[in-house]
Amino acid sequence: MDEEIPGRLSPYVRRPKRASLPGSPAPVPLRRRIGGFFLFRFLTALPDDLADAVAALLDPFERVARLAGRLVHGPALRGGRTSAAGRFALALHGFHWTHWQAETYGPAGMFTARRGDGPGASGTVTARPPWSRGGPARGSHTAVCRLRRVPRLRRRPARVDLVFADGSWLALRMSTRADAARLRAALGPARSTAVRGTASPSSPSPSPACAPEPEPDIGVRAGRGTP
């Protein structure tokens, strides 16, 4: 059984429109959208729940921080929603489209990677929901991709970028840096197991630079000096 590695879509991927999500969820009513506005939430929660009121006031600051992080980290998806990367992101959102937090901060998933056969060949990554592990009705999405080289200033220990066959790419944020290393190792090229400094068994032994001179026959040389 392939190892499933926990992770999520990068929070700096812009949230898609609800109409583009798999299953076409119903649009949010106007009353609910007004109720989700941070100032209205603050006023309604202030008399009873002070913690919720403070969280409502912090909402615009979180949005500004997320925007600043997007500017620092750069784009996290390239190719649009119709590309292979966009369809992969929509599949992750489709696992969670009823959860507001998942839509905002990036949906989570369990990822399985398989390396390609030849050197430099693309592998496959399969995403599944983080719940109902082993269930027969558990959804999945598989795409052909390989690792993308992240620019040096935007590299993060838990970041893994996937580039797909059509040139589109997206960024994942794994739960830990160890999980990110495991996903890179499962999808990246296989490393040689030969130890540096040891000769291959099939390689011929090096020939000497020059053949040794034959030793003179001592007995013949001594016989020439006798009468």
Question: What is the residue-averaged pLDDT?
Answer: 77
Order of helices and strands: EHHHEHHEEEEEHH
Main sheet makeup: 6 strands, antiparallel, barrel
Structural class: alpha+beta
List low-pLDDT spans. 191-211, 216-227
What is the distance, rounded to the nearest whole angstrom, between the alpha carbons of the first and last residues?
A: 92 Å
Rg from alpha-carbon coordinates? 31 Å
Explain what this protein looks like in three dimensions.
- With 227 residues, this protein is of the alpha+beta class.
- It has helices spanning 30-35, 38-45, 50-73, 84-96, 100-105, 177-187, 218-224; strands spanning 5-9, 77-78, 108-114, 123-128, 141-147, 159-164, 169-174.
- The protein has a six-stranded antiparallel beta barrel with strand order 1-3-4-5-6-7.
- Strand 6 (159-164) and strand 7 (169-174) form a beta hairpin.
- Helix 2 runs antiparallel to helix 3 (50-73).
- The chain is globular and about 65 Å long.
- The model is unreliable at 191-211 and 216-227 (pLDDT under 50).
Keyword list:
globular, disordered C terminus, about 230 residues, alpha+beta, 7 helices, six-stranded antiparallel beta barrel
Summarize the structure in short.
With 227 residues, this protein is α+β, with helices and mostly antiparallel strands. It has helices spanning 30-35, 38-45, 50-73, 84-96, 100-105, 177-187, 218-224, and strands at residues 5-9, 77-78, 108-114, 123-128, 141-147, 159-164, 169-174. The radius of gyration is 31 Å and the shape is globular.
